[in-house]
Design goal:
The protein has 91 residues and is an all-alpha fold. 70% of the residues lie in helices and 0% in strands.
Length: 91
């Protein structure tokens, strides 16, 4: 199964720290919109801290894919919201 990270820029997808930072940026944005910034940011931090000692490359790849999926989903959601247009899920 191909990695979801190919949908993200390589400098983001290949670097866990940059991926973490982008997840935090999105969490702050979502939190600001829903008036629960601290909660959303804390959830992202907890997930990254929970797995910070992971050494299995396959597990790390899966975790990075999960983070990338969350970012992609949020980007699509915001694009749809701002444009008023639904994106086809089969593309």
């Amino acid at each position: 199964m191909p990695s979801l990270q190919t949908a993200l820029p390589p400098e983001l997808a290949n670097n866990v720290i940059r991926l973490y930072r982008e997840c935090l940026r999105r969490a702050k944005y979502v939190g600001h919109q829903k008036h629960n910034t601290a909660l959303v940011v804390d959830m992202v931090r907890q997930q990254f801290k929970k797995h910070k000692h992971e050494t299995d490359p396959e597990k790390i790849q899966k975790l990075k894919d999960d983070a990338a999926r969350g970012l992609i989903n949020h980007i699509l959601y915001e694009s749809e919201r701002l444009s008023g247009r639904k994106f086809d899920k089969s593309s």
